[in-house]
């Protein structure tokens, strides 16, 4: 008999006798046993994971449809997963439960209310200003979603229309997303930190005719005049022949504490005003629109770390099933007692799957945070964890690195006794950051769960499965249930057992992307042409002798130094283990003799202290941890690193700086947080030898 749902989540805590073993110098793990987690519960053994994993691959249709049966479908077809990854055999496509009919918003709201969760808090909203707080129950959330669905209907939005959402992390953001899902409209959320140009381009590409925004918000001390940026974007849209017909603007500023000077006052016409729009549409009917399994649920543009962002399309039944299940398994979700907090913005996939759909489908109580970890100071995260007794936290290596640069008491002054799982996503976790989370934040009583996945994958691909498998020091991960990763060598041949290669997946899973919006050819070219028959992630990974995967970064970031394949992530991790280093980024630059050579950009807190002595210390660490071949020719001081708004280092730009490319030729910089850092790096570039 198949055991499927909740087997892993209900396994008891892992006994954390370390399985530490050496795999790659830079992935240096912490020593056992004192550095490793120690839970005193009976540990059922990894066979539980392996058994279930085998079942998920042997009978994928039964496995996934059993999970989907926990959710509400108005009609269920008898189809499971259908897909083709090999364009030589016909069109590339993925379908799950094709012909079934469901609605994701209904599953997030009504389904939970029918289960008796109506009065349960869905979101605890923490504003940017410490003290701004509101909560909303499932019943209240549903009322607001229905109200807003009526507004959309009243504006003529129909099933299949695209709606642009440009909002900060306020409750109106999930309300707007769910209202779209309720009426079968396709949402396209654009991060509220993006410029008018970036917004206009995404509105044009997605074909959105409706835009939902707010008057403005505060990010730390900075006032962001969102409405006026949105207005500018609409002007740009006109100039590029795309007309957005309807705008709805929520008045957010009147309910928050001002934390800085307002740069301007928003101009909101009566017909744009959210409250007026709600009042005007009271009589409009907006019933749940029952959608086909494969109708699009949303479009989301990727972060743009490797090039121009791609409009990734996710559909109803498959995405819902994967979001629901991966939320449970990875976070060991206990909806009855958990207070869960995903710090990612809904402008990114993590916010979609693990701040909105995953937690709501599971009836969780979540914190929704409008602010930033540094405001009013770096203790804010831990203050919120203490205030709401957060039990599961989902953050990113970049946030962790910024917090660990500050004194430990900023964490330790706050209670974290309920905290059981700390997840991270976005980039490889370097061992120092892992150690800090484990020791300072988790006090060795939390599982540190690295999650590897992408906008395209919709849900986790590799995670630690901490409830079933002994915790590793560092981020050695196992495939998520139903996910079949492979490593390919340079010739596209499968690597068996231990090895380092390109990470691909050889079969479909329900929550994966279906296409790139308006560009199915690019979808095939980018993800399925490089290795026919496989989904190409673009990332490299190592697999150790126990089958754990260690993601080493983008394959484009691998370098070949005198015939030795080196990963930038490994060298970065080695540099970051120097006590003065806050952050490091390594890229390959061309070299007459060696072919390529590493070039490092390093941030330390105090500019004046960047000296030859420190550079030599870093070089010595790399020499010792990896070998002389990995020592960069140049280690350049970087006051800041170019990052996407989701906090990822954009190495394609650093590569150009290292190669001495003209500043004007740096490519798409629209997704960067701060374009000025590039100029600084460029002018301070040492002359290449
Ligand atoms: P684009 O595809 O436009 O270049 P992007 O790849 O940065 O942007 P995302 O989908 O936000 O867009 O990020 C996915 C990528 O983030 C992965 O391909 C991988 O490189 C990196 N990543 C995410 N999580 C991890 C992790 N846990 N360990 C290592 N890398 C990770
Ligand atoms: Mg990508």
Kindly describe this structure.
The chain is an alpha/beta fold and 689 residues long. 30% of the residues lie in helices and 21% in strands. It has 21 helices and 32 strands. Strands 6-5-17-16-18-19-20 form a 7-stranded mixed sheet, sandwiched between helices. A 7-stranded mixed sheet has the order 12-9-7-8-14-15-25, sandwiched between helices. The longest helix has 17 residues, at 138-154. The termini are far apart. The chain binds adenosine-5'-triphosphate and magnesium ion. Residues 302, 306, 454, 538 line the site of magnesium ion (MG).
Reconstruct the topology from this structure:
Layout: H1 7-10, H2 47-58, H3 60-68, E1 73-75, E2 81-84, E3 93-96, E4 101-102, H4 104-108, H5 110-117, E5 121-126, E6 133-137, H6 138-154, E7 162-166, H7 172-183, E8 186-189, H8 196-206, E9 210-214, E10 217-219, E11 222-224, H9 226-239, E12 246-250, H10 274-280, E13 291-292, E14 296-301, E15 311-315, H11 316-331, E16 339-342, H12 349-361, E17 365-369, H13 380-388, E18 392-395, H14 397-404, H15 409-412, E19 421-424, H16 431-441, E20 447-450, E21 462-463, E22 478-479, E23 485-488, E24 499-505, E25 515-516, H17 520-527, E26 535-543, E27 549-554, E28 559-561, E29 564-566, H18 568-576, E30 583-591, E31 595-603, H19 612-625, E32 634-637, H20 651-658, H21 676-683
The structure holds adenosine-5'-triphosphate (ATP) and magnesium ion.
């Amino acid at each position: 008999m198949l055991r499927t749902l909740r087997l892993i989540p209900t396994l008891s805590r892992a006994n954390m006798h370390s399985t530490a073993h050496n795999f790659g110098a830079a992935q240096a793990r912490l020593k056992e046993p004192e550095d490793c987690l120690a839970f005193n519960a009976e540990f059922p053994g990894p066979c539980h994971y392996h058994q279930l994993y085998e079942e998920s691959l042997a009978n994928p249709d039964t496995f996934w449809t059993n999970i989907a049966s926990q959710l509400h479908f108005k009609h269920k077809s008898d189809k499971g997963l259908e897909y083709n990854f090999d364009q030589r055999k016909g069109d590339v496509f993925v379908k799950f439960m094709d012909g079934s009919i469901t609605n994701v918003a209904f599953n997030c709201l009504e389904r939970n209310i029918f289960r008796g969760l109506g009065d349960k808090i869905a979101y605890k909203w923490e504003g940017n200003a410490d003290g701004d707080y509101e909560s909303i129950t499932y019943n209240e959330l549903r009322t607001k979603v229905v109200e807003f669905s009526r507004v959309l209907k009243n504006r003529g939005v129909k099933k299949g229309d695209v709606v642009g959402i440009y909002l900060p992390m306020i409750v109106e953001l999930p309300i707007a997303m769910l209202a779209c899902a309720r009426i079968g409209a396709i949402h396209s959320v654009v991060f509220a930190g993006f410029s008018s140009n970036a917004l206009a381009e995404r509105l044009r590409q997605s074909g959105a005719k409706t835009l939902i925004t707010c008057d403005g918000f505060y990010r730390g001390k900075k006032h962001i005049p969102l409405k006026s940026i949105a207005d500018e974007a609409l002007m740009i849209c006109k100039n590029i022949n795309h007309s957005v017909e309807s705008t709805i603007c929520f008045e957010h500023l009147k309910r928050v504490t001002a934390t800085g000077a307002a740069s301007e006052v928003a101009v909101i016409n009566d017909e744009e005003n959210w409250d007026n729009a709600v009042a005007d549409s009271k009589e409009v009917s907006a019933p749940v629109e029952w959608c086909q399994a494969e109708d699009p649920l949303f479009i989301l543009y990727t972060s743009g770390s490797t090039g121009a962002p791609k409009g990734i399309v996710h559909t109803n039944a498959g995405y819902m099933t994967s979001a629901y299940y991966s939320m449970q398994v990875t976070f060991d979700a206990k909806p009855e007692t958990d207070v869960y907090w995903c710090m990612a913005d809904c402008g990114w996939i993590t916010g979609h799957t693990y701040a909105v759909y995953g937690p709501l489908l599971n009836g969780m109580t979540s914190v929704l945070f409008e602010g930033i970890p540094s405001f009013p100071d770096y203790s804010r995260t831990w203050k919120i964890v203490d205030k709401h007794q957060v039990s599961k936290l989902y953050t990113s290596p970049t946030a962790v690195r910024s917090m660990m640069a500050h004194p430990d008491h900023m964490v330790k002054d706050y209670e974290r006794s309920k905290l059981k799982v700390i997840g991270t996503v976005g980039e490889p976790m370097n061992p120092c950051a892992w150690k800090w989370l484990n020791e300072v934040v988790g006090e060795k009583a939390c599982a540190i769960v690295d999650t590897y996945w992408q906008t395209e994958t919709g849900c986790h691909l590799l995670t630690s499965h901490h409830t079933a498998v002994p915790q590793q020091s560092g981020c050695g991960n196992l495939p998520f249930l139903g996910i079949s990763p492979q490593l390919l060598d340079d010739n596209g041949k499968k690597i068996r057992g231990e090895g380092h290669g390109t990470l691909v997946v050889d079969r479909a899973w329900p929550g994966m992307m279906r296409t790139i919006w308006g560009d199915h050819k690019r979808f095939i070219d980018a993800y399925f042409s490089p290795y026919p028959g496989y989904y190409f992630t673009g990332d490299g990974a190592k697999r150790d002798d126990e089958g754990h995967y260690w993601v080493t970064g983008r394959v484009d970031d691998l370098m070949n130094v005198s015939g030795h394949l080196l990963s930038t992530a490994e060298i970065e991790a080695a540099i970051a283990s120097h006590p003065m280093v806050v952050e490091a980024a390594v890229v390959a630059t061309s070299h007459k003799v060696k072919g390529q050579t590493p070039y490092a950009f390093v941030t330390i807190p105090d500019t004046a202290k960047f000296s030859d002595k420190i550079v030599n210390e870093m070089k010595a660490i790399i020499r010792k941890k990896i070998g002389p071949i990995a020592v960069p020719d140049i280690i350049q001081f970087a006051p800041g690193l170019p990052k996407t708004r989701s906090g990822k280092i954009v190495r394609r730009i650093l590569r150009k700086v290292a190669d001495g490319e003209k500043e004007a030729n740096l490519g798409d910089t629209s997704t960067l947080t701060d374009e000025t850092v590039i100029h600084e790096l460029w002018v301070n570039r040492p002359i290449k030898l």
